[in-house]
Amino acid sequence: MQDNPLIIEVRCNESTMRGANPHLPYSAEEIVREAERSHDAGAAMIHWHGRDAVTGAPDNSVELYRETHAGIRAATDLITKPTLGYISQSGVEDRVKHVRALADDPRLRFDAVPVDFGSMNIDTWLPAEKRFEPGDGVYVNTRNDIAAVLGVFRELDTFVTTVCWDVGQIRTALCYREMGLAPTTTLWEFVFTGDSRPSSAGTNVHALNAMIAEIPPGEPWQLMCYGGDVLPLAALAIVLGGHVSIGLGDHDYARFGTPHNGELVERVVQLADTLGRPVASPAQARELLGMPALPPA
Amino acid sequence: MQDNPLIIEVRCNESTMRGANPHLPYSAEEIVREAERSHDAGAAMIHWHGRDAVTGAPDNSVELYRETHAGIRAATDLITKPTLGYISQSGVEDRVKHVRALADDPRLRFDAVPVDFGSMNIDTWLPAEKRFEPGDGVYVNTRNDIAAVLGVFRELDTFVTTVCWDVGQIRTALCYREMGLAPTTTLWEFVFTGDSRPSSAGTNVHALNAMIAEIPPGEPWQLMCYGGDVLPLAALAIVLGGHVSIGLGDHDYARFGTPHNGELVERVVQLADTLGRPVASPAQARELLGMPALPPA
């Protein structure tokens, strides 16, 4: 495992509300603080969503992404991968506008962006009430829209991670490679989901094997667990040569009290240490993924 | 394998156009002919779509379903499972109208109906042209719509097969059980897809294992391959205790010339014979699935 050190990504805030844990970051300053803690704990990459500093509501403004990104860059050398914006946004250009706006600045352009390769129902399951909320939540990514988004990132020469919620989305992504739109240098992101989000593969080794079997051999992959505890899956990924994404944005990890994102990263680092796998620094992770080095400040 | 004989379903015409093979049935008469051939070859169940007799266009009229069903009933004791109608139809009542219309007639009520448990992109991949056609095809089944459809079939006491295109849809179906809407007596249908329809799990044992791992132990499951050759998967299903669906509606099987549906069923019967698994008659299949016997004519 020495030649394949573990890349740990922190998914710090997604669209989760703060609730009982004050460490869920909303503001640029809070995100930068969590970035720094996660970096110091061993993360190589960060994913975040722009949020209103007070209410936590989605805020996908270019200026907020610029401010947050500048703060992360000043504090760490993390690989940066913001969201593409929200489902509520309309149209391809609106989803990519922050990526486009910062693309010409060598220090402030984002290192990577995540692209989802399909559509699925995304309501939350409320087991106590035995109902889905809201009940009509469909995350629609038509194939034409995916093609358009990929076209923009090809034009901007932006590193794209290939986000797949099931095996069919992997197969779809490989079609986009044949079209010359999806990159052959990528990080595959397998989205597993917890019980509150039964939208995707279950959290077991069979589902993971099905995903691994479908990607081209030798390409790097990472897993996450949206709406659930990623740590059991993380152990599988560490042993099977994959990479791990963890964070308060996906799950509250209340079994550890009110952890901040850095503590979650530290759990993964400990796990890797126990299992005998070294952890990649941001610079090593860039090299592993075939990304350019971060330009000096 | 003696106590778990193989249930073979024929999927005779789906929405495939006739093309080079004249045996793809459109009219009620043609569907009944294929039903009879498939029954005689060893099928226990039939799935079909109403089609215009001349053009092959979707025709979901109650009268056409009544005529076709009466013909199948007169010729065979197959378990009958028509489609719920087309994506192009709007609204729950329009999708279930034929099932509702025939529900009070003990001989003409349908034995079973298939319910899909999620949404996904469904365009066709054209490898030579390297594009998706049409490009914006999203098969939307919101969770509220699924609940409404299941409510109707509960009211009509209709046997529901649980159609899942990926592991997440299995998990979703289990939520509907907790809601009291999805039946606990069911046949799980795993939808695999061929290269022309990269919308679903790949056709390998890993994806199959992932599906099997998620359903409650001991419940019956069946697989199909939409847009691809099911026979390699069929061999896995036969050996692993599952059931098999095959037909010209899913794939042209041109490697066998211009087969009719009965010949495809016969291939599965031969495979089962070689692998040492007996084939279920329609009456045995009803018993295996916990369905009532077919009332006498």
CATH A-level architecture of chain A: Alpha-Beta Barrel
Beta content of chain A comes to 15-25%
State the CATH class of chain A: Alpha Beta
Q: State the domain count of chain A.
A: 1
Mean pLDDT of chain A: 95
User: Which pair of chains has the greatest number of interface residues, and how are they split between the two chains?
Assistant: A-B, 47 and 47 residues
In helices, the fraction of residues of chain A equals 25-40%
What keywords describe this structure?
homodimer, 297 residues, alpha/beta, TIM Barrel, eight-stranded parallel sheet, two-stranded antiparallel ribbon, 16% strand, 3-keto-5-aminohexanoate cleavage activity (chains A, B)
Explained architecture:
Chains A, B: InterPro entries: Aldolase_TIM, BKACE. Chains A, B: GO terms for molecular function: 3-keto-5-aminohexanoate cleavage activity; metal ion binding. Chains A, B: Its cofactor is Zn(2+). Chains A, B: Keywords: Metal-binding, Transferase, Zinc. Two copies of one chain form a homodimer. With 297 residues, chain A is α/β, with parallel strands linked by helices. Chain A has one domain: Aldolase class I (TIM Barrel, Alpha-Beta Barrel), CATH 3.20.20.70. Chain A has nine helices and twelve strands. Chain A has an eight-stranded parallel sheet. In chain A, helix 7 crosses helix 8. The longest helix of chain A is centred in the C-terminal third of the chain and has 15 residues. At the A-B interface, strand 5, helix 4, helix 5 and helix 6 of A face strand 5, helix 4, helix 5 and helix 6 of B.
